[in-house]
Amino acid sequence: MKLSFSFRRMSAVTRKEFQELVRNWMGFLLSIVSPIILYFLFAYGMPLDVKNIPMVVLDEDKSSESRALIDVFTNSQVFELRRMVGSSGEVDRIMRLGEIRVCLVIPSDFSRKIRQGMRQEIQVLVDATYPNRAAIMAGYVDAALADFSETRVKALLVRVMGGGGEGGLPVSMLTSAWFNPTLRSEDFIVPGVIAIMLIFLPPILAAISISKEKETGSIINMLCSPVSKAEYLVGKMIPYIVITYGNFLLFLLFTVTIFKVPLRGDLFLLLGVSLIYAVSVIGIGLLVAVLVGNQISAILIVAVATLIPSFMYSGFLLPTICMDSTARTISQILPPTHYIDFIRKLMIKGVGVLYLQSSIVMLILIALVLFGLSIALFKKKLS
User: Fold this and answer.
1) Domains in the chain, please, with CATH?
2) Entry pTM
3) pLDDT tens figures, 30-40
4) Beta-carbon-side half-sphere exposure of residue 159 (alpha carbons within 13 Å)
């Protein structure tokens, strides 16, 4: 006769799992402390801002115009002028040593051509050992040169046209940065770090809890008991869902107070959907534990199935909209993809549930599928 679901039996399994966690105090402590340590390592180490770029200048003109150009770079709060060099050979040596990232070379006829209104080309050497950062540094260089050029063109118009040139360039651009006006990379990175931290260690702990009982043979006690598959699996997972959710609350506190990431959306919506995400990530560990019979296999499979795809396809570093069709398809089956999209939109943009419903629905579906498959595939019998 098929047994109905009993919350009493499920709570008994949950109490037993909590007692085992507390009894193994070192493992319990690591399950709380380790994610916190990793959170700070990622949050402090992952920001994409490129600041204090070390640069040198080879000024062959040594004029007021060349000094004005150098001042544009040094006053930008992005570049750090380390020193002036006197020859191209010294530039080559410093670049090869990796002591600087940008070198500005100003030719000897720079000021003469500027005063005559002629086009002047200057050389900027960028260390492209790290391609992504090189692209960002090149963008900063372009911005600094554009600022200098605009100032000089306005001055030329005033000199040539008299008072008629005081309006400056005929077309100007006014850029307005929405949601993150200071362009802080922490506002983009740190909410994503929460998702990555919750997808890494908690599923491993959940997978170990069941695979260990399989490996040691203690699971036979459950097989011989009236506890159903659903009661056993849900009861075993509840303690890890609680731990995962507790880690989330700490991460949220750190994100708002230490990293000053704004929380513009509904806090209660964030708390509710984060619980769904905690359930879905624990479901991954549960499904793996059902399919394998030893702890080592469970740990390796969970690590490969969660951490690597989450970094590459979840939108943590590269927005999914910028990926090709195959990568976007893979991203849709990953819980972090939908949670990162949700938490960034809610915290940074402050949007409501109307704009977040697709992410919420996908997280619910993934959680139901993972737990449903785990219960269906778990065999309450000796193999």
Assistant:
1) 7-47+184-377 (no CATH), 53-165 (3.40.1710.10)
2) 0.80
3) 778 888 999 99
4) 10
